[in-house]
Amino acid sequence: MDVFLAVTSRREVRDYADRAIPEDAVLRILDAGRISGSSKNRQPWRFFVVEDPQLRERIAKSVYAPGNVHGAALVVAITVSGKGPTTFDAGRAAQNMMLTAWNDGIGACPNGISDAEALQQALELAEDERTATVLTFGYAARPRDPERRSPEEWITRADRKPVDEVVRRL
Amino acid sequence: MDVFLAVTSRREVRDYADRAIPEDAVLRILDAGRISGSSKNRQPWRFFVVEDPQLRERIAKSVYAPGNVHGAALVVAITVSGKGPTTFDAGRAAQNMMLTAWNDGIGACPNGISDAEALQQALELAEDERTATVLTFGYAARPRDPERRSPEEWITRADRKPVDEVVRRL
Q1: Helix (H, G, I), strand (E, B), or coil: what is residue B17?
Q2: What is the reported pLDDT for A141?
Q3: Which CATH number fits domain A3-166: 1.10.3720.10, 3.30.360.10, 3.90.550.10, 3.40.109.10?
Q4: For A31-56, what is each residue's pLDDT tens digit?
């Protein structure tokens, strides 16, 4: 899929079909995170693929929307540690992963964390390591075809602030 | 360009050719930021396109690598304010913008901030607003063709930690 069409057509997908993600797509998603640029190339992240059902339940309880984790075909927690703009870098990696998923027709959503300490224990993180986000992935329960609109149409239809509110030219 | 090829082939570009970016490409880059997903759709950002030479000089002095700003065809400061994971969201927007640029053959680089206060004053930010990054864009002085390798080859050649160091399956 063309990059600009992917960027403009992707929306957060929270309701997933009961359908597994092929392993090659999982590997592309993880590689998209691993290859991301980061400040001083520190690669401050780890990517935890959570498959064990009991552990998944603990992860579900530590985010604001447990249902996203319950329904997802793939759950990846991104953790960061060390100095520098690690949260910013985690955002870059997450976007790379979600766009790469979308390129394969797979939806995704970043999940806000409600209980950071529980997550810390569940993933057995180091003391200076913390979870930046929990990404949930899956085919959409109600799929939509990005190709059915142009990038410009996707932008127009999105619920976003107008250009003159967010862009300033100085 | 295919999303996965864009994700895997893009590298930070810091040395720019003396060549302007067409206005339609500038608008795509800004829209790619504006359309980005964010926590609770708060869209916590503003995008400052810095064109005035004197203001540019002040921006250059407030980042670690002033030369990137001096050489860039387009300079965009992303600021954030308010509650929530705003820095993470800024990372998502920045990645959308840099991938969209790369889709048009345009390089980019996020610039670390050395003097946040100077930047605050130069951009006349609100008290609770701060700059997440300064993105510099331009055609590469030494261009390279993403199509000349496969995504897998781009990954293999990147200076990144191996999979077993950053990915854990639980």
Answers
A1: coil
A2: 97
A3: 3.40.109.10
A4: 999 999 999 999 999 999 999 999 99
Model pTM greater than 0.95?
A: yes
How near does any CA of chain A get to the CA of B20, in Å?
Answer: 16
B14 in Cβ contact with B109 (< 8 Å): yes
- Which residue of A47, A50, A95, A155 is the best one to mutate when testing the B interface, meaning the one whose CB has the most B CBs within 10 A? A95
Mean pLDDT score across all residues of chain B: 97
Half-sphere exposure in the Cβ direction for B72 (13 Å, CA): 31
**Closest of B88, B77, B76 to residue B42, by C-alpha:** B88
Query: Could you tell me if the ipTM is greater than 0.85?
Result: yes
Of the candidates B3, B31, B84, the beta carbon closest to that of A155 is on B31
Please indicate whether, in this complex, the C-beta atoms of B88 and A85 are within 8 angstroms of each other. no
CB pairs under 8 A between A and B: 198
Q: Sketch the domain layout of chain B as residue ranges.
A: 3-166
Report pLDDT for B126. 94
